[in-house]
Structure prediction request, 378 residues.
Amino acid sequence: MWGTDEVRVRIFINQGDSSFVEGESYLIGYDTASQSIYCADFDGDGDVDMAVERSRGYGEIGYILIFLNNGDGSFADYIEYETDDASGYLYGNDLNSDGYIDIISSGTDTDRITIFINDGNSDYLPPVYYNVGDVPDGNDGGDFDGDGDVDLVVANQYHGGGTISVLMNQGEVEPNIGTSTRLLSFGKVNVGDSSSLSLEIYNLGYDTLIVNSLIIGDSVFKVNEVGFTLFPESTRNVTVTFSPVSTDSIEDTLIIFSNDPDSPEWIVNLRGNYKLVGIEEEERVENQEMEIECYPNPFNSVTVIRYSCSCPSRALIKIYDVSGRLVRTLVDEEQKTGDYWITWDGSDNSGERLPKGIYFCRLKASGFISTKKVILVR
Prediction:
């Protein structure tokens, strides 16, 4: 369906003798186009609903329009979901084994697919993106590894050739909490003054994370949130403030209570009136203009780390976990002036695969330091 004016999707009713009659049509927009429809029971009421792709073409934001069946062969006004990319071919299946149909869309002018997870209440969670090959233009699914989960295959339309991408379902449908650090250290703060630090809280899982409460024991530390909800692959910033009443050093903990079954009580250590040392002190002199790039990020198999040396120097690239523990040294050598790249497959120095979560890739070269947050998903 392509058009420059009013664009509609039309229903044809089966007469039971292999013939069809023209039924109602439904508006999807103006000066727009659609090249894919997927039909299934999205709201679990036993009726067949419609998902319609809509976009204005390459380089434009795409949308998925959900038309829910009223139960009499007619459809309610569509519910619109934005994909960020020019949406392409649609496919549906129960990706998280909850009994509801999720939707997969290939971004026809990008290198990724978009997945909308059905929340079971006639609505879809914010999209999650997965990098595949160049110009994905077809999706399908099946249990390729025999583990009972639906895996995905994507056809990629490379210029002059083609590839396929296979995404293996990890079978995890639980929330997974993480934070940008496990230690907030405020250094020296004068009595009567206050110092605030930001803490990022992540949901790295595939189900909604419910943060029920954030508790701090000592009154000299305060957090500005009491509870919230995080959709999969999303982030929330909270602020912790230290207001000392004496010059004594003090330690406390921020406990984040959530529905993460593996970490229902996530702890972040707090320190006030301590001297900054080691990795914390390095953060204060970090060069904000020097860039280190990691792509894709988040990643589930390999990320490419690109960096540069502005003059001949010793280059160090190390990977740290959120507790500040060194898990992998990727580069430790003298390098000439120039641009470089290296890959990291998510393993530690012993070759063991690290668990999914947040890691920090730190470059020291040419007298400068640059750090990039990297998210490993499984």
The helical segments are 279-284. The chain has three domains: 6-167, 177-275, 292-376.
